[in-house]
Amino acid sequence: MARSIDPEVVKRIDGLRRELHRHNHRYFVLDDPEISDAEYDRMMKELIELETLWPELASPDSPSQRVGSPPLDRFETHKHRHPMQSLEKGFDEADFISFDQRVKKALNSDAEVLYTVEPKIDGIAVELVYENRRLALASTRGDGVNGEVITANVKTIPTVPLVLQEHEDLPVPSPLEVRGEVFMTKENFRLLNEQRLKQEQPLFANPRNAAAGSLRQLDSAITAQRPLEIYVYGVGDPLALNTDSHAEAMAWLRRLGFRTNPLIRTKIPLTEVLSCYRELEEKRGQIPYEMDGMVVKVDRFSFQDRLGSTSRSPRWAIAIKFKATQETTRVLDIRVQVGRTGALTPVAHLEPVRVGGVVVSRATLHNQDEIEKKDIRIGDMVFVQRAGDVIPEVVKVVASSRDGTQKPFQMPHSCPVCGATVVRLAGEAVIRCVNAACPAQLKGHIRHFVSKPGFDIDGLGEKRIDQMVDAGLISSCADLFDLNAESLKKLEGMAEKSIQNLLSAIENSKRISLSRFLVALGIRHVGEHIAKILSFELKDIDTILSVTPERLETIEGIGQVVANSVWAFFSREENLKSIQKMIKSGVVIIPDASPTENQHLAGASFVLTGRLSSMPRSRAKQLIEKAGGTVTGAVTGQTDYVVVGEDPGSKLTEAQKRGIQILSEPEFLKLVGASEQPG
Ligand code: IVH
Predict the structure, then answer these.
(1) Residue span of the structural domain in which 348 resides
(2) Which band of pLDDT confidence, cut at 50, 70 and 90, is reported for residue 390?
(3) What's 54's domain CATH number?
(4) Among 295, 330, 601, 666, which residue has the least CB neighbours within 10 Å?
């Protein structure tokens, strides 16, 4: 006999579901939460408890479904009511111009056609079928006709609405097929792989594979733990909608609760499409997810209808691709480089390959741990990647390409340049050459000393520096200022003219601002930004030479790690001697020009982690940029500050490991001069 159900329970469950749907939408889609995460978790916990006690009240569109359902044996297939076509590809602006001409010809019109453009996200296409405003089924694209049913998995994606928002003026056709791209951000992909490394699980090659692997899980509880997101980009049958353009259909989908790409540009003419493409390709490195191009769609549905489709793709849309940023190539050799701090870095020498428009023939392998974790061997085929202006890196080995001829690599036990012993300090992943007189360290120091942010001496490239050190012409940075025509003549390939040019470049570099001088010295943790702070605060080199760590720590923007490093540098006799020698040779250190108002963070690089209680991230970013700083996604050697909110991620650990200055929320607010109060 069925037990009787308490109407209060039904009401409570119903209320909780409604509220949870609403908060979910506010948090994930609108980025504007009303309640704390803890409160959300409490409500979800109560709902799951009630549903466990009252299984007869279970519902497939309950927010509790986001945590995953029992595993499947296999995926069912689903025939799409309207095929999911692919897009015609173009590779440059010319391909788009000829597309535009074809469109106009087919429409038999010379009038301007308006387009809507959006990023082509490199993820997985899915179709979401809603019946009576409820998510009934989700499937992959499959072969375009039949896809795999992945409903339970898709329900775990927080940005997928399980029930559509209700608006009186918005009738929703049933069924409604919404299409979009499921993806993982680059940062979340990195974190996932980091975690998999620790658990000794195979790595994903790229965010797309990670998203696909997460989505095609028979056990949706696993999918639920993967940080997947969605942007929707269309519907199965546009003519069933009450709108007459793609742009309006997207606005309509947003009102129903879907997330659409904020980078969409609607109803623009040919010329703007071209400039959008250029802008998007340029911005590519800063966008948190991988895009492989830009999709251009004829905006008007009546035009789309007239243009129709070929057997594979619609004639009203085209994807103009960007240059690939990930490629496969072979590791020809692994060699060791010694840097200015004595760190030994293994470098993969690769069969040259074009990645993102640039030929790559070397990639850093960081250290021995990294090589072992990724199990990279000489002779392996590997994925290499370049993101923005970052140094190329090896992502992963193509495991299937191993044929037994590949050779594992071991870091040497002595410095490959000077032969001195190498050490690995506790807690460090790098191996260092301990010989302070190692020519490789000296060469690295000189390269840094003369580089653009330092003395900025033209005509002193890597080869010249190697030659000078090898010939014994210089044994410290200060020796550069003693060079003369007589000694330079001894170097091979140094003609009269280049000797004169070099000597006058050295002469001209001698007047240098205090901050650039500090950068040139190569003090650990002192980049352009910290050097500026020191320069503005302490004003002249004499004050800096005798500064105490206590005084340094009173300076806003300077933490303990930086203070200690600066102090340690200027406590060393040989560093002081070297500076005195430079001054004696005619180096004149001048004060920095005062900073323009409000741009007190010029050049500073920030990473944000965790939730800020006083403002959304977008506002924090705005404040930093207004003050001249920049915000990046990952903690690197270039990062100046890591701002830590509630529940920080692994970026905090990374920052601690690297000794980067960490700012709490109140410290951050003070630094940017914000009026907000932490909540
Ligand atoms: S429109 C009829 N818009 O690209 C074509 N597709 O080759 C409908 N994709 O399978 C596709 N971002 O996975 C469209 N903004 C976007 C897209 C996009 C990524 C993918 C999608 C599709 C493939 C087409």
Answers:
(1) 324-435
(2) low
(3) 1.10.287.610
(4) 666
